[in-house]
Amino acid sequence: MYMTNKQIKEKAYQAVIEHEKQEGRETEIIEKDGYDILSKSGSEERHIEVKGTAKKKPTFICMQPKEFKKMLTDDSYYLYLVRDVGNTPIIKEYKKDEVLKRLKGVEMHYTIGFSAKEFKDGEEKPHEKQPA
User: Fold this and answer.
1) pTM of this prediction?
2) In 10 A of CB 116, how many CB atoms?
C-alpha cells in the first residue's frame, strides 16, 4: 500500500504517542527546536525526534541539520525509528549516544523555500533553446 510522506509521519507520531502513554509518559507534539515530541514522566523529559518509514527493514534515515545540532547538545534527546507504519508499527528507541555510534557521515542539506504566489502564469517566458 502506497503512503504519502504526510501519512507516514502522522502514523509514526500516532504510534509514538500511544507508546509513550503506555509507558506512563505524557506527550506533546512540538515540531520545533530540532525534535518532534516532548515526553514527560515525573522529572524525566524526553525530546523525541520521530523518523517513520513504511519499510520493514530500513537501512538508513536522514537527519536535517537542525535535528543533528539538537542531538549533539541535548542529553534528553531520543531518536524513535518507527518502521512498517502501514501495518503494525514497530518502534525502536535510540538514545543520543546510540545514534552517534551509528553515524556514517555528515552531509548538510539546505532547502530554499518558494511561495506559489511567486509564480504567476504568463509572467515568465519559457526558456527557449538558442540556435547554435
Assistant:
1) 0.77
2) 6
